[in-house]
Each structure stands twice: as C-alpha cells, then as structure tokens.
Design a protein that fits this description.
four-stranded mixed sheet; about 120 residues; Ribosomal Protein S5, domain 2; alpha+beta
C-alpha cells in the first residue's frame, strides 16, 4: 500500500511555491520543505539523479511514501510538504528514513507551525 494520490502534490507550480515561500528542515538523508497556511495536507517527493538510475530513485520514493503513509495522522494539517533526498539517501533503508521523518515531526509539532500565520 502507498500514500493515496489525494495527498500528493502533482504540479510543478505547487512544488516551486513550497520551495520559494516555505521553510526547510534538514536531516542526514533528507531535506523537508514545508509551507503552512494551505487548505489541505499534501506531500511531494523528489529524488535527484545523483542517487542513481530510475529503479533506485523509484525505490526510495516508494519508501518515503510508505513512511509518510504510516505517520500521516502525525503531520499537522493545512501544510504542504516536499521531501527531497540527499545523495547519502542512496544507502538509507526504511528504518533510517522513518527515524528522520519522526525527528521532523517531533520538531514541527514542538514548534507548533500549525498555528495561524
């Protein structure tokens, strides 16, 4: 099972808006951009070609979508998220990615970015 399409960012314009107007959080393997003040909770995933060929990139995207799906209720509402991988993510497994997403969730819930602008 994977993250449903209704929870995904689909347009390039949406990704660019998150990059330009949002904030970012960095871990060893991921950079997570987020933009609050939106109508819904949406997620985008990008994996650089530096990671490897399409098979490897798609595998990492599948892992990330699954981590997000399992923790979906922990993400604050009304925020768009874009998860980018660093080159180190090439060797990351599910547990490492899950731990880094958990660190982000602890941080964002601590900071209470879900409150009004």
């Amino acid at each position: 099972m994977s993250l449903k399409r209704e929870y995904r960012l689909k347009k390039r314009k949406q990704f660019l808006e998150v990059y330009t107007r949002g904030k970012k959080f960095s871990t060893n393997h991921l950079v997570i951009y987020f933009l609050r003040g939106k109508d819904e909770k949406l997620f985008g995933f990008t994996v650089s070609r530096k990671i490897g060929k399409a098979v490897k990139r798609n595998r990492i995207k599948r892992l990330l979508r699954e981590v997000v799906r399992l923790r979906l209720n922990s993400f604050p509402e009304n925020i768009w998220y874009v998860v980018n991988t660093k080159k180190k993510a090439k060797k990351a497994d599910f547990e490492v990615l899950d731990r880094e997403i958990a660190d982000f969730l602890n941080w964002i819930n601590e900071k209470d970015f879900n409150s009004a602008n």
